[in-house]
Amino acid sequence: MGAVDLLLVVMAIIAAAAGRRLTSLARASGWLGIVLGVVLATHMVTLALGRFGIGDPRQPLYLRVLGLATGALLGRKVGHAIGAWPAAEAASRHAEGAYRRAAWSERALRPLAAVVTVGCVAWLVGPAVSARGAWPASLSHNSIVLAALDWLAPDAPLVASPQSGTKAWTAWAVDFAAQLPAGPIPLLARPSDGLDHRVRSATVVVRHEACGGGSKSATGFVAAPDLVVTNAHVVAGSRLANAAIVVILNSTERHRGRVVAFDADNDLAVIRVEDLAVDPLPLAERSEHDQTGWIYGHPSNGPLQVRSFRAGTEVAAPVPDIYSTETLTRLVVPLRADLDHGYSGSALVSTDGLVIGVTFAISSAEHSLALAVPMPAVHSVLRQAIATGVNGPATNTGHCPATENR
Question: Is residue 331 part of a domain?
C-alpha cells in the first residue's frame, strides 16, 4: 500500500465518522445521489458527444460542465427522495418495526455516502494531480485504489488524458521521393458495409497509465484470436503490466489485457485479451506500391474516424527508435495520408480488405506524409505472441519513451 492509498484510507475513515453525524438519511442519500449523478453524467455526455461526431469527447468544456451540473442536481433530488421514503413510510404506518428499519438504514447509509464521496473526489482529481509532474506522479505510482478507480469508473470528466499520438519527425535524413506513390491521397468511396463493419468491430482503443500520470490512449486492432496489435511506443514503460492495459471495444466495452510481445526496434507490441469475441482482420503478406485503402483510428482520443491512404514502396530507412536515443535502419512503408495524433497502431486496410501495415509516425514538416510498419515485422511479432501461449506472462515493455512530438 502506497502513501496515496494510506491517505485515502484515512480520509475514508474520517469521512465515515463524519457521515454518522449527518442529521437524516435523506441528506446522506442526497450526497450519494450527487456522486452517482456525476458518474452517470460523465458516461452519458461522453457517449453523446461521440455520437454526434465532436472529435475529442472531452470537448467542448462547457457541455461537459453543464452535463455534470445537471447530473449532480438530478442525482441529489432523486437521492433525497429515496432517502426520505423509509421515514415517511414508517410514519404513515405508525409501525415501531418500520421505525427501527429506517433508523438502521440511516446508520448504514450515512457513513457509506461519505466514503463514496471520498472515492469520487479521488476519481475526479487523481489524474490531474498525478499529471502535474514527477513528484505527484511518483506518489500515485503504486496506488492500488487509484488503479482500481481507473479500471472501474469512466474517465475523469475534466482532465484531458495525454495521448500516445502517432510519433512525429522533423528532420530525418531520409528522402522518400523515390518510394512515395506517384499520386496524391486518394478520394475513395466509403468501404462496403460488410468490410466497414468488420474493421470497426476489430478496431480498439488501447489505454494504459502513462509514465507521467493520467492515462494514455491510442489505436490498435485485433490481428489474431484474443491478440491486439498496436505500436510499442503506445505501451512502453507501462506499469502494473498484468492489469494496467485496457482495451476498449465499441467505445464502452472494456477488457483487461497484458503485453505478451514487444518489439521496440520495429515499434510493435501485441496485447493478449482473454475471451475477446471479435473476428481478427485478415493479414496480407506485404504491401504493394501504389496500393490504396483506409486507416481506422481514434484521433485526439475521439470517436473512430476513417482516412484514405496511398502506400509507397517498402524502403530501408534510418529512423529514430521509440526512445529517441539512437537511429535504426529498418524497413518502413511511406504513405500519403492525412493523419493526426492518435492514429498510432492503426491498421492500413487495403481495398481488398487485407491489413497491409501499421501506422507509427507522421511528418511534422509535410502533413500528408506518414510511415507504417511493413507486414513482415507484424507477422514476426505475432508469431512471438502466439508462441507464449494462452497463459503466457506479461513481457517487459522497457522504460518510458521520449515525450517529444507525440
Answer: yes
> Domain boundary residue among 94, 117, 152?
152
3-state secondary structure of 324: coil
- 80-117 pLDDT, tens digit each: 677 666 555 555 555 555 545 555 555 666 677 667 77
Q: Quick one: 94 and 213 in the same domain? A: no
Positive or negative CA dihedral for 372, 373, 375, 381? negative
Whose CA is closest to 185, among 306, 303, 331? 306
Q: Is 347 helix (H, G, I), strand (E, B) or coil?
A: strand
Question: Are 175 and 311 within one domain?
Answer: yes
pLDDT for 311-350, tens place per residue?
Answer: 999 988 888 788 777 888 889 999 999 888 888 899 999 9
Closest CA to 238 of 400, 406, 404, 402: 400
The Cα–Cα gap between 195 and 201 comes to: 10
Regarding whether 79 and 213 lie in a shared domain, the answer is no
Q: Does the pLDDT of residue 58 top 50, yes or no?
A: no
Q: Which three cell numbers stand for residue 58?
A: 472531452
Q: Is the separation of the CB atoms in 278 and 221 below 8 Å?
A: no
Burial class (CB in 10 A: 0-12, 13-18, 19+), 50: middle
Single residue among 152, 185, 202 that ends a domain in this structure = 152
Residues in the chain: 406
Cα 162–Cα 59–Cα 50 angle in degrees, nearest 5: 95
Show the domain range for 97: 3-152
Task: Look at strands 167-169 and 355-363 and give their pairing.
Answer: parallel
For residue 153, CA distances in Å to 35, 43, 149, 197, 201 come to 12, 9, 5, 28, 23
Q: Which residues contact 134 (CB under 8 A, 6 or more apart)?
A: 212
The total number of structural domains that make up the chain: 2
pLDDT for the residue 165: 46
Check whether residue 172 and residue 140 sit in a common domain. Answer: no
